[in-house]
Amino acid sequence: MSKTMQITASDGSFSGYLALPASLPAPGVVVLQEIFGVNYAMREICDGLAANGYCALCPDLFWRIEPGIDITDKTGEELKRAFGLFGLFDVDAGMTDIANSIAALRKRGACNGLVGTLGYCLGGKLAYLAATSTDTNGSVSYYGVGIDAHLDEARNIQTPLLMHIAGKDEFVPPSARKKIISHLKDNPLVEIYTYPQRDHAFARPGGAHFHEKDAALANGRSLSFLQRALK
To answer: Exposed (0-12), middle (13-18) or buried (19+): which is 200, by Cβ within 10 Å?
Structure first.
């Protein structure tokens, strides 16, 4: 079952796509979007999590720029718009919205109070930052862009963090990947998997770099992690 959920912020309110499992109450996952908004791919991810027993909420993190962004990476015009949105996005405000989304999902009767975060691309960085600055019960980061600039915040990680790193990520240079892995590999709360031959967004069906086998491997690892973190 899916529906729209409203989340309150100090400066307004914003919506999110909510998918619920058949059996309730259940643990929750706040899904953190790519630079294309709460689009079909993000809604499909929420639906998949719901099918696996989670209350999955994807909040509209671009709402201050323009509510309801729903685009793809299929055309040059859409890509240009997406990168423009990325440039306008206020990370600090976004992290406040994520904290509010976690709190709102916890308060819903459908949720059992345990809530994790899971994100892709921009959302992958935000998932890492959620592990450092929110009360998420666990966080999953898929090929986050820009994490290397926030490694000093790793000292604040209090709950488990799973990271999927693409070995040929066009948006995360080798030096950045090496820095991230070197800085986090000895943290007992951090679990890192690398996919040496994969490019950015390898886990998104329909994407230019989608790789079915490694996407399935990464997603299986994510589900196992969420099961442990949200038990």
So the answer is: buried
Active site residues: 169, 200
Q: What is the pTM of this model?
A: 0.97
* Dihedral angle computed from the Cα positions of residues 92, 97, 101 and 103, in that order, rounded to the nearest 10 degrees: 70
Whichever domain contains 11, its CATH number is 3.40.50.1820
- The predicted pLDDT at position 38 comes to 98
Q: Per residue in 134-170, pLDDT tens?
A: 999 999 999 999 999 999 999 999 999 999 999 999 9
Count of domains forming the chain: 1
CA 36 to CA 23: how far, in whole Å? 31
Q: Give the chain's length.
A: 231
